[in-house]
UniProtKB/TrEMBL annotation:
EC number(s) reported in the record: 5.4.99.-
Protein name, UniProt field: Pseudouridine synthase
Catalytic activity: a uridine in RNA = a pseudouridine in RNA
UniProt GO MF annotations: RNA binding; rRNA pseudouridine synthase activity
Domain spans labelled RNA-binding S4: 18-74
Keyword Isomerase: yes
Protein task: Responsible for synthesis of pseudouridine from uracil.
PROSITE patterns in alphabetical order: PSI_RLU, S4
Originating organism: Nocardioides euryhalodurans
Taxonomic lineage of the native organism: Bacteria, Bacillati, Actinomycetota, Actinomycetes, Propionibacteriales
Pfam families per UniProt: PseudoU_synth_2, S4
PANTHER family: MITOCHONDRIAL RNA PSEUDOURIDINE SYNTHASE (PTHR21600), RIBOSOMAL LARGE SUBUNIT PSEUDOURIDINE SYNTHASE D (PTHR21600:SF44)
Amino acid sequence: MTQADQRTLTVPEGLDGERVDAALARLFGLSRSRAADLISEGHVLVDGHSVAKSHRVEPGTLLEVSIPVQSDPLAVVPGIVEGIRIVHDDESIVVIDKPVGVAVHPSPGWSGPTVVGHLAGAGFRIATSGASERQGIVQRLDVGTSGVMVICKSERAYSVLKNAFRHRTVDKTYHALVQGHPDPLEGTVDAPIGRHPKHDYKFAVMADGRHSVTHYETLEAHRFASLLEITLETGRTHQIRVHMQALKHPCVGDLTYGADPVLTKRVGLQRQWLHAMRLGFEHPDTGDYVSYESTYPDDLQHALDVIRDAD
């Protein structure tokens, strides 16, 4: 809140004896709770004095109200984000390597950096299709997940790639370091995922959840953990993390989904060991198959080195 709407009015005869919060609500078109908040936060003066929300007003009383202008939590704020790397850029798409700690687009409760904010700050023209805060976005990565992703610059690219993701023709390959050793070493998890019944910020395997399929293959097996290559048939929120927890092999560092805090501290992680390695699809303009890759960021590489050295 950086600006405020200053208003001054005298109480009319018709509001004689009303509580000041009710009078404010009627005079300024506010909700009763919003009016009460303004009073408690010291934004309201009655004849120059602060009062309680239950104070009764009289005709001719001077009301001075300062109404802070609330910022839109979904507004895209342009600004360069350190660590975002441009992997590919052409007239239709831009492929980036997203670092940890960056959201793809604004959302309620998130005040940190975003991919769309970076692209706006860097002067990229993005497709206007989609909700205003996520225009051009055809896929998402969690704030705590790093790696390669594509954003659309043209309307045609948005339409074509949105359809490709919907019909699961995009190849999405991740690497995950998980605790223990999955048995079998290569397999498929086909288990529906829904909102967690007790914690709305989490997801879980639920009988009435959405169809979710994850394929995995063990690349390295170490004393405390295994490095997996994972491909997704579906793209549910937290899908890999939920399915790995369901296998009793959560991603190293993923305290939300059952990771060992002692091992997490030992490898120095502050997030789940999960990285979007490769992304492949038919280019929306040429129809040619294209593939883009990323490398492990420093925190994940360090954690993997610690695990390897523990053998």
